[in-house]
Amino acid sequence: MTTRPLIGVVDHGAGNLVSIGQALEAVGATVRLVEGPGDLAGTDGIVLPGVGHTGAAMAGLRAAGLVEAMRAPTVPLLGICVGLQVLFDHSDEDGGACLGVIAGGVTRLVDAPTLPHMGWNQLDLVADDPLFEGITDGSPFYFVHSYAPSPTDPSVVVATATHGRPLVAAVRSGAVVGTQFHPERSGADGLRVLGNFLRVVVGDLPVPTGAVA
What we know:
By secondary structure, the chain is of the alpha/beta class. It has five helices and 14 strands.
């Protein structure tokens, strides 16, 4: 990667912006905080972070006037944790509508031995995806959540993990990708995932074809 892509990190009031910003800079990005639609101008990619609840994240996006921009991103977008969950149609967590970028809902984990699911867990890579270039199947990543997506189309799932039952850990729909785990808290492999996202942004890795589901 010969250039430093400009990545917009969305501030919807429910994301750990410092850690994700530092991680992106460590793998070669220039980071801009996105607090409104105008801040997206000139960005090469978007990261939609999140901790907490989907309802609060959606309220923050609405207050910032960012809902429509997130529904139809013009550059590659990575959603993390709650930032992944709000990509779906709705969430049982708050009973409200989300962005509807990917068809399906977000449901509470079933048969989980503990809630929240918190700590390191192994990924099962179920599809070849550029986000996981160089990542070994079974590698551990860091999770903190009690809800997870249930996509309408199972073909969007690119990685799972197991906590009582299998859960969706990463999805891909065209240039929109999301992880339930926190790459910025997942050590060297997490940084590799973020670096792979940047490589997609600058064209070093291909964006998978296919319309947003």
